[in-house]
Write a structure and sequence with these properties.
The complex is a heterodimer of chains A (755) and B (328).
Chain A (H helix, E strand, L loop, with lengths): L1 H7 L7 H21 L3 H5 L8 H15 L1 H5 L21 H15 L6 H27 L2 H13 L1 H4 L10 H21 L2 H17 L3 H17 L5 H18 L8 H4 L4 H22 L3 H28 L7 H7 L3 H5 L1 H4 L9 H8 L2 H15 L2 H19 L4 H23 L17 H4 L20 H28 L8 E4 L5 E4 L1 H12 L5 E3 L5 H8 L2 E2 L8 H12 L2 H10 L4 E5 L10 H15 L24 H5 L1 H7 L12 E2 L4 E2 L10 E6 L5 E6 L9 H11 L4 H6 L14
Parallel strand pairs in A: 3-4, 3-5
Antiparallel strand pairs in A: 1-2, 5-9, 6-7, 8-9
Helix pairs in contact in A: 2-7, 2-8, 4-6, 4-27, 6-7, 7-8, 7-10, 7-23, 8-23, 10-11, 10-13, 11-13, 12-15, 12-22, 13-15, 15-16, 21-22, 21-23, 22-23, 23-25, 26-27, 28-29, 28-30
Chain B lengths: L2 H16 L1 H15 L7 E4 L1 H7 L7 E7 L8 H20 L6 E7 L4 H6 L7 E5 L11 E2 L9 H12 L12 H29 L2 H16 L2 H7 L5 E2 L5 E2 L10 H24 L6 H29 L13
Parallel strand pairs in B: 1-3, 2-3
Antiparallel strand pairs in B: 2-4, 4-5, 6-7
Helix pairs in contact in B: 1-2, 4-6, 10-11
Classes of the chains: A mainly alpha (755), B alpha/beta (328).
Chain lengths: 755, 328
């Protein structure tokens, strides 16, 4: 046995170079797997930008490579938020665009002129490989390189991260998670070594992170929290002081160079924790220094009193500054994380976003599978060792679990730490059960293979493990446990692949459905409609739609929009909401005043596409009500029994709202009389469809998902549009039969329904 | 605010010019408002006074609350709204001791039965704003729409009155001394208590076990969807089909209170099995016992993970994977 072992497993020291090569190969394989698993959408559909926000980032990247960096910096975009415009250069996080711009230039330099779109589409998968590497480095600092490799593999394929980084998902998170993990790695390194160089590097990557994603506030608060907990535990040391001071001073100054951030780090509550801890650590360092010089007991008491006094004064000062308004209070988005009812009452525009909803447990399991129950075990193992860096894992775990529970979107920040903790657990289990040596019974300490684990810290109770480490005797036990965990790991890989392929690889711009014979049918209504806008409307046409579609219209149709996904002006959004929710007379005024040429609505009633505007309508009403409580009232859209109905029971306010009319205009004509059916709401519509006076139907896409209306000009004779249509309706009475036979030429006729 | 004296002068001028009678009536109500038996600034009306305050030749507005405070009527909304209305009347009275052309009145059903019948009112509370009577045509009173989920109705009413009349109503809520005292008392009490209990609490405060337990419970709670329950206020269990109690909500983005607790316990046991496997097992001295224990924990892990997968499959019908022995 031992002879075989000595042949197979040489002395660890002598195989170091072979193992490091193996590590590199494994990491490269993990990176390749991470990239490959994100390419489903490219293979199934095409190389296309997904969702909503990425369309803006793509447009901005195109602007950057076309006009150069300085123009990009000073970009005033007059094609959005008409008529206000948007100071785009100063109100975005430029990190993502600059990254892809740099890659574009670098590739051109080596004579590889790649289209910027392909760089944008493939940026997120590329960075996911780097994230796996950063996770490896981070976990290696926590345990060993074995755990690091496992963590990298988990991170590479965990659906919680894939959800935001598939090919085409060209969003800030694409590079931000890599930066998050790498910054944390550098921080742990800095805190371990007490090195100003690592602290400075950490600050540098923190700066990159600040320039890339608003979620940098997570780092801004987590590192101070780590330091604070360490101080409370009495673990203050010169290393922590050097690391934190260098990170904070350099990182804050650097982050203030991003125009969108500017003076926020000294003016808002989100950043006050970091500033406060910076002050505190100076104080602690000072006291620590003095204590070394003057060892008198009275003096120590005096010092302690002084520290408490200064802390209280500092804290009161902060509170006063906040109350008097010098320091801005928590911004609504962050405040709603603590007071979970806040957003719903005060900022409906935040509450309306689906990714800001709380997370139900199936989502956790869906995104993390078995990692979610290995996670607490990893936290427990961190508690057992509890070196300074393990405190970081614990603090990160608790905070990130809370945030992920409150907001689905923040699952993204939880995923890395779950992967790390789970990897620590799995690797501990493998360490124990993959040991070939079998201990001899009754013979204590015969082998000192794990000298570290042999003398566990003497902690009683819950974390107790006073008995010495012996090992596993039976080969059967080893095989059973290792076998079971291998099965779980394989299951995990299957789960991740299935989730990625089924849930997270749809571009949402293009929908896929199955035909009765099982073949795939692509529904391409969005691009059809946007392309129609691009080809058939004047270049300066203004399109009004709900803000969700603003970025897509800007990116695909290249037309001016009123509102878009950058929700910086609530009143303007509420104006659009009011136009949608009001009667035609009121809406027409608003449309004319904003020089709107076309109105675009999304309607899923024919196809059963549930993300349409009628389902979002209540949010429009709510947001409009927030600004005009007298003119738009949510309750008037509910029936007497408090139901949201669109059929014949719908309230008059509902039936007369512009949104309702635009959605169902001529819809009943698709069906036999009285049979019109809305497939999303499962309701039968009144036989008589709504009548539009001030708008003309301009375009309806193949499956009716996108409907575009042209706003009528003022009447030539100065009449209002209602009397015009009444007049024309009266005149046409004679020829009514002829009018009913077909719809106006140029529009699509009745179609065969296929679902 | 500079407008107010002018407004007052204007109203008084108007009242002089219209009729001496109107001026008398106005003064009556000013007196009534200031010497009200209820809240200051709120006129307690009866049938006759209601007739006067809404009668012809009036040069003032009045916001009148029709209510039914008596316990017999069981009008919860009335009783909830009454203090808010008092705050309204009070605030107006504080700013305008002479009422300045706006009165707040309450007509309770027990003293104003006839009026309720005459106006055909069958529900309460109803808040109406009577504008001044214009010469010639009578202005129709405006009705306020109550929003049951409103947290600060007084402010909403104030906004409504401001928007629909020439008066600007600002709300002054009385300073809540009780709250301040509770707050200060709470801080002092906590400080004293922690000072006294410190010698006993210190070991616990520095106990790694305690913090580990707290952190793990927090992590388990949050990852099993507790915050969702808290925010959406989901029921603990619901009545299932066939009269039974159903523990598991159907649907992927839905859950029940008990369901999350089951999940949290499953996660906890799974995590503990993993810990036991990697920490406890290799420290057992007897090889026979170790073998049995390893197999037992391994089995617990397998069965519970399989149970978890089957629950998940129950929630998400399209999920293709399962783990024996439990196959849903």
């Amino acid at each position: 046995m031992s002879a075989v072992k000595s042949i197979l497993f040489k002395d660890p020291a002598s195989t170091e170079s072979a193992r490091s090569i193996l590590r590199v190969v494994i990491l490269l394989t993990i990176a390749a797997a991470a990239v490959a698993s994100r390419l489903f959408s490219v293979i199934r559909f095409e190389s296309i930008i997904h969702e909503f926000d990425p369309w803006f980032n793509f447009r901005a990247s195109k602007y950057l490579v076309k006009h150069g960096f300085f123009d990009f910096w000073n970009w005033f975009d007059d094609r959005t938020w008409y008529p206000l415009g948007r100071v785009t250069g100063g109100t975005l996080y430029p990190g993502l665009m600059v990254t892809s711009g740099a890659i574009w230039h670098a590739l051109r330099m080596i004579a590889l002129p790649v289209d910027i779109r392909n760089i944008c589409v493939l940026l997120a998968p590329g960075f996911s490989g780097l994230t796996a590497f950063a996770t490896y480095l981070f976990t290696k600092e926590m345990k060993d390189s074995g755990a690091g490799l496992l963590a990298a593999a988990f991170m590479g394929i965990a659906p919680g991260y894939i959800s935001r980084s598939v090919a085409g998902s060209y969003d800030n998170e694409a590079i931000a998670i890599f930066l998050l993990m790498f910054t944390f790695y550098l921080w742990i390194k800095a805190a371990k070594l007490g090195s100003a160089m690592w602290g400075g590097l950490c600050a540098l990557f923190y700066f990159y992170m600040v320039s890339a994603w608003g979620g940098y506030v997570f780092i801004t608060n987590l590192i101070p929290l780590h330091v604070f907990v360490l101080i409370l535990m009495g673990r203050y040391s010169g290393r922590i002081y050097v690391a934190y001071s260098s990170w904070y001073a350099l990182g804050t100054l650097a982050s203030m160079q991003v125009p969108f951030v500017g003076f926020l780090p000294v003016r808002t509550s989100e950043h006050m924790a970091a500033l406060g801890i910076f002050g505190l650590i100076q104080l602690v360092a000072f006291v620590d220094f003095l204590r070394g010089q003057v060892p008198s007991k009275q003096f120590n008491t005096l010092l302690r009193a002084l520290v408490i006094l200064i802390t209280v004064v500092g804290f009161t000062g902060l509170v006063t500054l906040t109350v008097t308004g010098v320091i801005a209070p928590w911004s609504g988005r962050f405040y709603s994380l603590w007071d979970t009812g806040y957003a719903k009452i005060h900022i409906p525009i935040i509450a309306s976003v689906s990714e800001h909803q709380p997370t139900a447990w199936p989502s956790f399991f869906f995104d993390l599978n078995m990692l979610i129950w290995l996670f607490p075990a990893g936290v427990y193992l961190s508690f057992r060792q509890l070196r300074d860096e393990h405190v970081f894992i614990i603090v990160y775990s608790v905070m990130a679990s809370y945030f992920a529970g409150v907001m689905v979107r923040l699952m993204l920040t939880l995923t890395p730490i779950v992967c790390v903790a789970a990897a620590i657990t799995v690797s501990s289990i493998f360490d124990t059960y993959l040991e070939l040596d079998t201990p001899q019974e009754q013979e204590e300490d015969s082998e000192s293979k794990k000298s570290k684990k042999e003398k566990p810290k003497e902690v009683g109770g819950f974390l107790s493990s006073k008995a010495p480490f012996i090992g596993i005797y039976s080969i059967t036990s080893k095989v059973a446990v290792v076998g079971a965990f291998c099965v779980y790991l394989i299951l995990f890989v299957l789960h991740c692949t299935w989730v990625t392929s089924n849930a997270y690889s749809s571009p949402s711009v293009v929908l896929a459905s199955r035909m009765p014979d099982g073949s795939q049918h692509i529904i391409d209504d969005f691009r059809e409609a946007y392309y129609w806008l691009r080809k058939n409307t004047p270049d300066d046409a203004k399109i009004m739609s709900w803000w969700d579609y603003g970025y897509q219209i800007g990116g695909m149709a290249d037309r001016t929009t009123l509102v878009d996904n950058n929700t910086w002006n609530n009143t303007h959004i509420a104006t659009v909401g009011k136009a949608m929710a009001s009667r035609e007379e009121v809406s027409y005024e608003i449309l004319r005043k904003h020089e709107v040429d076309y109105v675009l609505v999304i309607f899923g009633g024919l196809l059963g596409y549930s993300g349409d505007d009628i389902n979002k309508f209540l949010w429009m009403v709510r947001i409009a009500e927030g600004v005009w409580p007298n003119e738009v009232q949510e309750r008037k859209f509910f029936t007497a029994r408090g139901e949201y109905k669109i059929d014949h029971e719908a309230t008059d306010t509902m039936k007369n709202s512009l949104m309702y009319k635009m959605s169902y205009y001529k819809f009943p004509s698709l069906f036999p009389p009285g049979q019109a059916q809305d497939r999303v709401r499962g309701a039968r519509l009144p036989a008589e469809g709504p009548v539009l006076h001030t708008l003309d139907e301009a375009f309806t896409s193949e499956n009716w998902i996108v409907r575009i209306y042209k706003v009528k000009d003022l009447d030539e004779f100065g009449r209002d549009h209602f009397s015009v249509s009444a007049f024309e309706g009266g005149k046409k009475k004679k020829g009514k039969k002829a009018g009913l036979a077909g719809r106006a030429p140029g529009k699509k006729g009745r179609r065969v329904l296929r679902i | 605010m500079r407008l107010l004296p002018i407004l007052t002068a204007f109203t008084s001028l108007l009242s002089l010019s219209v009729a001496q009678k109107a001026s008398n009536k106005y003064q009556t109500f000013v007196d009534l408002a200031s010497s009200s038996k209820g809240a200051k600034g709120v006129v307690l009306l009866n049938d006759q006074l209601f007739g006067e305050i809404t009668g012809p030749h009036r040069n003032f507005s009045s916001a009148i609350l029709f209510t039914a405070l008596d316990n017999r009527f069981g009008c919860v909304l009335c009783r909830d709204f009454q203090p808010e209305f008092d705050v309204l009347g009070n605030s107006w009275f504080k700013d305008h001791p002479n009422s300045d052309g706006l009165f707040f009145g309450v007509l309770d059903f027990s003293v104003g039965r006839q009026t309720f019948q005459r106006l055909g009112m069958s529900t309460a509370p109803i808040l109406m704003l009577f504008p001044p009577s214009a010469p010639g045509s009578e202005h129709q009173p405006l009705k306020f729409d109550f929003n049951p989920s409103d947290v600060t109705p007084a402010e909403s009413v104030a906004r409504w009155i401001t928007a629909s009349s020439k008066h600007t109503v600002t709300i002054h809520r009385p300073f809540n001394y009780a709250k301040l005292f509770t707050f200060v008392g709470g801080i002092v009490g906590t400080a004293t208590l922690s000072k006294l209990a410190y010698p006993y609490l210190a070991p616990a405060l520095y106990s790694r076990n305690l913090w580990a337990a707290i952190s793990l419970v927090a992590v388990l709670l949050f990852t099993s969807g507790h915050m969702f329950n808290h925010i959406r206020k989901v029921p603990y269990v619901v009545q299932g089909r066939g009269g039974g109690v159903s523990y598991i909500a159907s649907g992927f983005s839905n859950q029940l209170g008990l369901e999350t607790q089951i999940i949290a316990v499953v996660y906890a046991v799974l995590a503990f099995s993993a810990i036991a496997l990697c920490l406890k097992m290799p420290r057992m001295e007897s090889s026979g016992k170790q073998k049995i224990a390893v197999m037992a924990w391994n089995l617990v892990l397998l069965v519970l993970f399989s149970f978890l997968m089957s629950i998940f499959k129950m929630k998400n019908g399209a999920y293709p994977f399962f783990l024996p022995p439990l196959i849903a």
